[in-house]
Amino acid sequence: MLTISDLAPETIKELLNDADAFANGKISKAKSEIFVSNLFYENSTRTKTSFDIAERKLGLQVVPFDVSTSSVNKGESLYDTVKTLEALGVNLVVIRHFQDAYYKELESIDLPVINGGDGKGSHPTQTVLDLLTIYQEFGKFEGLKIGIVGDVKHSRVANSNAEALRKLGAKVYFSGPSEWFDEGAIINGTFVALDDLVKEVDVLILLRIQHERHGEKMQISLGKYHKKYGLTKEREKAMKPEAIIMHPAPINRGVEIDSDLVECERSRIFKAMENGVFARMAILKHALESKGFEFE
Ligand code: CP
């Protein structure tokens, strides 16, 4: 699972059904010994920890891999690192990497790779957990209006979520600083002023400012950003009664969202994190079954 483009709508629905069953207490264990390893070349709290937990819940053997103490620091390439783990007997790897589309380097390797996020390219497993959270709330995607707000240009979540939500019949709109909206990258994206957008959407997805991917210093102060492009208490009051707030996190409290709204009644931010374990269980099981491994 490298990008959301790899998945047909039917496969996404199968993953969501499996993930929802895990959320409702279904237990599934590997029938044989399976070794998996999580290679995080870029920092992570949610993705790495939820993969660790999902793997243990499925009865997989998690082989620790710490990039900072590995031979990556002696200059070993990503290709040679993954080829080595395969030779040692690892059966699947999860990789997060700062380089867009790093996985192209690994095309000739047979080992299944799950993309835990590549640069500003894709974050398909985040998308599955976001979809699960939306589906649990509304029971459908068709006709839902989704607003994605903030640093759209540098966000792998914006790319993956917009693609999947459109595939499933939702309407996707964008807002935030216009210079961070790259129409070329997000095909057919419609840009809407934030004060108009908040009144219309069923789901408002806020994005973190990806400082680490900005070539130059921001032209606007964080306080001004919050007033102009953030979810303030006033904007939250203008949302439809049943509308929900999401954010892939980590959150810059008081910047893209008022700190008091992070855990408000309509926030599903921590619910989505909880769903991360179940979504990743479904994704791991699907990837391993496609290689012939069996689960009880
Ligand atoms: N949402 C997300 O990918 O968080 P982490 O960077 O902590 O994994």
TrEMBL record:
Pathway: Pyrimidine metabolism; UMP biosynthesis via de novo pathway; (S)-dihydroorotate from bicarbonate: step 2/3
EC number: 2.1.3.2
GO molecular function: amino acid binding; aspartate carbamoyltransferase activity
Pfam assignment, any one: OTCace_N
PROSITE patterns cross-referenced by the UniProt entry: CARBAMOYLTRANSFERASE
The organism's place on the tree of life at top rank: Bacteria
InterPro entries linked: Asp/Orn_carbamoyltranf_P-bd (IPR006132), Asp/Orn_carbamoylTrfase (IPR006130), Asp/Orn_carbamoylTrfase_sf (IPR036901), Asp_carbamoyltransf (IPR002082), Asp_carbamoyltransf_Asp/Orn-bd (IPR006131)
GO biological process, one term: 'de novo' pyrimidine nucleobase biosynthetic process
Catalytic activity: carbamoyl phosphate + L-aspartate = N-carbamoyl-L-aspartate + phosphate + H(+)
Positions contributing to carbamoyl phosphate binding: R46, T47, R96, H123, Q126, A249, P250
Enzyme class: transferase
Subunit architecture: Heterododecamer (2C3:3R2) of six catalytic PyrB chains organized as two trimers (C3), and six regulatory PyrI chains organized as three dimers (R2).
Protein name as catalogued: Aspartate carbamoyltransferase
Organism: Chryseobacterium taklimakanense
Gene: pyrB
